[in-house]
Amino acid sequence: MTTHVKTAHLSVAVDLQNEASSTKIFGFWVYLMTDLTIFAALFACFLVLHGNSFDGPKLKELYHLGPVLYETLCLLTSTLTCALGLLAAYRAQKGASILFFILTFCLGAAFLFLEISEFISFIGQGAGPERSAALSSFFTLVGTHGFHITCGLIWMVIMMFRIGLYPLTHHALSRIFCMALFWHFLDFVWIFIFTVVYGIGYLL
Amino acid sequence: MKDFIFGKLTSDAIPHKWYTIGGTASIIAMLVIIAIYLTKAKRWTRAWEEWLTSTDPKKIGTMYMILASIMFFRGMVDAGMVWLQQSIAADSGGYLDPDHFQQIFTSHGDIMVFFVTMGFFFGLMNWIIPLQIGARDLAFPFLNSLGFWLTLAGAVLINLFFVVGGDFANTGWLALAPFSELEFNPSVGVDYLIWSLQLSGLGSLLAGINFFVTIVKKRAPGMTLMRMSLFTWNALCAMVLIIAAFPVLTAVTFLLWLDRAAGMHFFTTGFGGNQMMYWNLVWMWGHPEVYILVIPAFGMFSEIVSTFCKKKIFSYTSMVWAAISITALSYLVWLHHFFVMGAGPGINTFFGVVTFLIAIPSGVQVFNWILTMYKAKIQLAAPMYWFIGFLTLFMIGGMGGVFMASPPADFQVHNSLFLVAHFHTMIVGVALFGIFAGVTFWFPKIFGFTLDEKLDKRAFWFWYVGFFVAFTPLYLLGFMGAPRRIDHYDAVTGWQPLYIAAACGFILLSCGVITQVVLVVKSIRQRKLHKAPADPWDGRTLEWATHSPPPFYNFAVIPTVTSHESFWDMKKEGIQPSREYKDIECFKNTGMGLYVSGFAFLAAFAIVWQIIWLMIVGLIGIIGCLAYLAFHDDMEYILPAVEVAKIEREYDDTR
Amino acid sequence: MNHAIGSRITGYILSLILTCIAFFIIIEPEFFGFANMGAVIAIFCLALLQSIVQLIFFIDVWHEKDTFWNVTVFASTVSIIFVVIFFSILIINHLNYNMR
């Protein structure tokens, strides 16, 4: 059963005609809250441990803020393209949707590339995660976010195939919605990462 | 090359100690017996099609109950070994070496908390919550199956050290740092603990999200929040705690694993690590966890009291607010588990005061139950026995808790046997008695026949008297200065007679367990003689409005609800259930939950032994399964109204 | 359709501005006359602002009538996050001070 949904206005409790979608989305929203709580614990560890450099290099000395700004801009732009891709899917514009998601994927991949380069450069300077508690907490918090980005990218590829090869049912749309929500949530967390990890780490 | 294929596995991992050989033999014996039974009864296909791939919460609930029961035996054996050691080890080493003794009490704690109590509660909730809210299924049936299988994978992993590896964690059930770090604990035992907890923790979290969304979104028409039954309300509060607390456990055990496997320094003794951060985060989970264990029991007892006193609960609104307050407050008290660690008077006072405050809503609930019983015609069925036992033990344990909420008092009894007696009073007296009462109460609904009342009451007396004999000595020993977790002590302390008395209590408790086994077996054998009607107890809530056992779709027609005791009102007004059958949307069975958990188990095992290729296989398997699900989400099918009518007619004919 | 796209583009531009201001403060706190601690508070406020912008413009939580539970769940999570982070810092600071 193919239903092409034409909604003018997108929202979280989307597709109110379809109770199944709104339940799925609500369930995913609750899951995202638990993911936020995991990040809260990791943030707490970073805030408590970021000064404990032991005899290793301080975080302040290691940071290069230029690449961090590029990462932030990549991720922020990818949030926009992801949202546009989702809107296109809801208007049954498969081609446009996939195009926007490819763009999102590239920006997300660029983000990962910059992040991994930063990790490699730290490790190359002898400032790997096993060097001190401060570095452990840095690598784990930023790395966990990067791991989530990777999962998001894999999910995005699967969804792109789904959009391309199969009709867009309510089921499919609600899943794409969840994926887009996940991607927005990752940018949401990144706002706090660059503020707390790089900002506070640099200033204090 | 050998490292690549086998990771850290060596021939040392093959069982060679007396208890690992014994444990392996027991596991193999159990599996062989099950295999023989399934082969002889030709039930392999049926086991696969009706049980292992089921998404029906009633079946999943039963599987949780079976898993929890098996783990309960393991936990009791652990307890018995501890009691035996402590009663003979005055001025002697006892029969267990210290490291083994530590592993035993560690596994006892983890198994009883994660697999027994949580397992039994998820079982009961799967059975009853959809029925009580007038729903056909949970919000996410596949996730329900996945949650169960992940919990089972965790249970297998926590027992796997018997077969592969030989060492479990010896750190206590929470694996506190820095003792659980690589520096002091290089063997894989702690890793087994961490990853078993991760698997079952993920299972519990998914189940928590599922039940939360179900209760919020899938209630019958007309059932506002304030018309839900009290068991559902308390279950909702417990699910909120699961959602709020389990992610913290996931995070902190993951960080501990990073310390151990990747050489990081979150909680190590050097390189800037902060051990107290582990204690802080793990208790931030740990305290809500113990409330997750007791809050559903409160709900169950509220239902049982009003049913057997034939009165509605004294003040429904105050019970709801008490449950909500306990939930909110329980997230703000965790530091009382480490008052002695030096946070200072200001912090200690704050957490002490909030801990005192929790006693208030708890008291509100106790008074509600007592006032419900006041001037009521009380029918002393077996669940009421468990209730009276619970009420007395809850008050004793609660008073012990309030005593320890005061930091100066806690400084005297922290980590003594007084503490051990307190939390066992709560877990046994509240959680376990709640489970036993709930099972007796709802067994006829789920299975269509009643449990033998006499045997159940006998089991109660063994448990109740046995509890006092086993744990009163521990309260006394605590005040005499006996610390917990000691494997031997000097005879001059005069502790031994009390330890021996406690061991006698354990024998009584074991008699209780044996009686319960006999109870279940005998009741199953005699099930044709004790068929239960749809409403054996003259119940008040919605689950009694459908057949016993319920059809897989629960209700042929979802009832409309007009009050918080809708079924009672329906009976009073003589309202018959509607017969206007419609098509029902049902969820297919799927083996995906099993497959994903199987791959997760492989990945976790590989992580423990650091076998990288196997870990990648596991992860690819999980991603593959999830990708498959993304493309094959046609999991629903329609049961036509004529089929529903046919099934309902069969029920009418057999009545 | 236009409203939805417009909302997201507005959100994007606002986030972009807030991000750039935050980075500028991190690199040159003296430009605004901030001492280090002041800069930290400033960027944290900017982060909160940007997160609200993203919530409103991208996640669109506020426009439907049936979002009571989504908002409640989110508000509870924010309180839990606050408890986790604030109390962890407070407790560890006290422990570090008393047990050094």
The number of helical runs of chain A is 6
The number of distinct β-strands of chain C equals: 0
- Overall structural domain count of chain C: 2
- Return residue spans of chain C where pLDDT drops below 50 for at least 5 consecutive residues: none
Number of helices of chain C: 3
Radius of gyration of chain A equals: 19 Å
Distance between the termini of chain A: 58 Å
Task: Identify the CATH homologous superfamily of chain A.
Answer: Cytochrome c oxidase, subunit III, four-helix bundle
Kindly report the oligomeric state of this protein: heterotrimer
Largest beta sheet of chain C, briefly? none
Keywords for this entry:
heterotrimer, A: 204 residues, mainly alpha, Four Helix Bundle (Hemerythrin (Met), subunit A), elongated, disordered N terminus, B: 655 residues, Cytochrome C Oxidase, Chain A, two-stranded antiparallel sheet, 20 helices, 67% helix, globular
Topology:
The complex is a heterotrimer of chains A (204), B (655) and C (100).
Chain A: H1 19-49, H2 59-62, H3 65-90, H4 94-124, H5 133-165, H6 170-203
Chain B: H1 2-6, H2 18-40, H3 44-52, H4 57-88, H5 98-132, H6 141-159, H7 189-217, H8 230-262, H9 275-308, H10 316-330, H11 345-373, H12 382-404, H13 407-413, H14 417-447, H15 453-479, H16 496-525, H17 566-572, E1 584-587, H18 592-609, H19 612-631, E2 636-639, H20 641-654
Helix pairs in contact in B: 4-5, 4-6, 4-16, 5-7, 5-9, 5-14, 6-7, 6-18, 7-8, 7-18, 8-9, 8-10, 9-10, 9-11, 9-14, 10-11, 11-12, 12-14, 12-15, 14-15, 15-16, 18-19
Chain C: H1 2-27, H2 36-59, H3 68-98
